[in-house]
Amino acid sequence: xxxxxxxxxxxxxxxxxxxxxxxxxxxxxxxxxxxxxxxxxxxxxxxxxxxxxxxxxxxxxxxxxxxxxxxxxxxxxxxxxxxxxxxxxxxxxxxxxxxxxxxxxxxxxxxxxxxxxxxxxxxxxxxxxxxxxxxxxxxxxxxxxxxxxxxxxxxxxxxxxxxxxxxxxxxxxxxxxxxxxxxxxxxxxxxxxxxxxxxxxxxxxxxxxxxxxxxxxxxxxxxxxxxxxxxxxxxxxxxxxxxxxxxxxxxxxxxxxxxxxxxxxxxxxxxxxxxxxxxxxxxxxxxxxxxxxxxxxx
Amino acid sequence: xxxxxxxxxxxxxxxxxxxxxxxxxxxxxxxxxxxxxxxxxxxxxxxxxxxxxxxxxxxxxxxxxxxxxxxxxxxxxxxxxxxxxxxxxxxxxxxxxxxxxxxxxxxxxxxxxxxxxxxxxxxxxxxxxxxxxxxxxxxxxxxxxxxxxxxxxxxxxxxxxxxxxxxxxxxxxxxxxxxxxxxxxxxxxxxxxxxxxxxxxxxxxxxxxxxxxxxxxxxxxxxxxxxxxxxxxxxxxxxxxxxxxxxxxxxxxxxxxxxxxxxxxxxxxxxxxxxxxxxxxxxxxxxxxxxxxxxxxxxxxxxxxxxxxxxxxxxxxxxxxxxxxxxxxxxxxx
Lengths: 298, 334
What we know:
Chain A: Keywords: Signal. The complex is a heterodimer. Chain A contains ten helices and twelve strands.
């Protein structure tokens, strides 16, 4: 409750400050509509954007939708009324944002999406993590650490989801460089820790020799760690996750997990604002800009 | 269908009705489906029929089976409990939160079990006194309890709960995993309740015909509250096992568990109309689902095909069961 209230005050304050300071400074205004600032990931994204805005000489107006699509829509309407130069949107929902994108199109204000895409309307640029590259990165880590030989297990995310598809594709693609490594099992555990535990238990029964496990997110990786420890096989295999959530970073520090792939929200914010500045000057930007990922180990 | 049950109620105080032979015939079909599945998996995977893997399956099945035991009580009264997965998450979070806050283990467990039971009582009161359909009451509770869990945890898992607590999920007594022992105790108690105690006859009677049960002196309200309370309590028992196994209470724990539990109950021959079925079938139903999940993982079946295969096997099991049941019915009539 109190958090919401404070966030509302902050948002109001930011809009007020922008309204007061923006035109006076005579600098172009860029809106940044964030899904929620109640998540460290998006706070980092905002910080990166603000730093880049200061450098690029644009005024950045940050709006926090608190994960409410209606709030996001109405706050962006305010930006249209204020005639913002470019609006960067991190949608709360890829479908719900479409009418708002179309309104911006009608007002001839260029739109840039970041992290989550919009499922309709015209978007000048989309900036998001490259999940395929992340999968390749995980495969490279596994391949190098096993010196090109060994048995590997993959735990997949929700079948049909884009993250599962891209991370899995990248991992398989990356393993092609290491013909001595066999993917002995690849099973879905729905990005869920409890399922990661059960599925890994079953795979441990079927596969007597496993050298490494790649889980397409950290939740499943942490479930797998529990299963492997219970089977007392943690000395002979290591686990690599994805996302760099707090529990996983702790597990890496304690040596229970080997590595995880981290997204770089600050980079995301920086690239979004730089693209906005280019658009303001009338320059061309690529339709999709992949944000590089980072391997985190102990 | 309701007729024999109503009669049984009238007689109940005098003597419990004899365990009907009919039940065994009903379970026959599922048993055949189960044995066939086990035989097929034993042929296909050398890792399946080992003592180690069978204990592994039993340990995995325990969570769904314990929830399904509570669900059996509810469904026998012609009700349904959709809130079990959320209650599991809430009870797990409360236990883990208390433990992390320095509350002794026994008291933390008690707090979680009390929370599950308490929310179950609320379900039961709303169904019995509010005269709202159980589907709606427990659907509302599903969102309330999930929301409460998110508020309590701030959306973050509560991890590192200590070896004493983790033993409840990962430990064993004489080689038998603790979760399996808990499951056996739960089913033994449920079996005694349903077949040897008067309250068991009441539960069947309410499902057969609530109005007739009321007229023959059954306290329908109190029995209804009892079954939902038991369902909440058993969700919390399952929460102990899941939380201990993960060494972490997850705010998203138990999502969709209500469907697995209902599937186990219905596969086990308890009808959604109430009044007919039993706890033994539920155990078999839960094991069928668990063995299927285990087998698909052992055979490394692609995740896309897995869902198709899972659905087909469950459908096939029910069809075999229905067919044999009808034949059994005819034989009985003859």
